[in-house]
Amino acid sequence: MAHHPASTNRRAARAPHYATLAAGILLGALVFGGTPALTQAAAQAVEAAAGRIEAIDEDVRRFCSNIADAARDRRYALQQAELEALQKDIDRRIAALEEKRAEYEDWLTRRNDFLARAEGNLVEIYSRMRPDAAAERLAEVNAELAAGILMKLQARQAGIILNEMDSKAAATLTGIMASAARRQDPT
């Protein structure tokens, strides 16, 4: 027999009243020296009240066990919804990162293409300069850039430019070119 939750709750609320009433009847019978029949009636009332309390307790236990699965299912559903929302947020962030990565790769490709064209033109410019003028200009730029330009020039032409440079600057550039030509990492 299924009980409506509201009626179960009302019964549970009345349970302490039954126990109090039964205890009062029994106490009254004992204190006021009631007859054995009255004492027996009081004992039966207490037993009846205890039986009702047990029945109500059983109803409450059944009610709680019946809603436990529903509560657990609801909790799981809420957790699942939260996980799905988090997954959507992660997917959105991954998509944004992938978009930025593609944008960066495009930028890097354009930059490398530009540098390759500019470097080729730059090497050609230095190859057409007088050796003393090229040496003077290369001494003023970044040492790694100067070494890169010299490495792309013909060996004879690079030698003439290095010969025109200050010995300290020529030694620095030679050291950079030698370490760049190594096949293994010097560290």
Task: Please characterize this protein's 3D structure.
There is one protein chain. By secondary structure, the protein is mostly helical. The chain has 2 domains: 1-108; 129-187, no CATH class. It contains 6 helices and no strands. It is rod-shaped and about 135 Å long.
Summarize the structure.
The protein is an all-alpha fold and 187 residues long. The protein has helices at residues 5-31, 36-128, 131-140, 143-152, 155-164, 167-181.
DSSP strand content: under 5%
Gyration radius over CA: 48 Å
Backbone structural class: mainly alpha
Count of structural domains:
2
Question: How does the major sheet shape up?
Answer: none
Q: What is the mean predicted local confidence, pLDDT?
A: 78
Contiguous helical run count: 6
Measured as a percent range, the helix fraction is: over 70%
Order of helices and strands: HHHHHH
N- to C-terminal separation?
84 Å
Low-confidence stretches at least 5 residues in length (pLDDT < 50)?
none
Gross geometry = rod-shaped
Annotation, overall tally of beta strands: 0
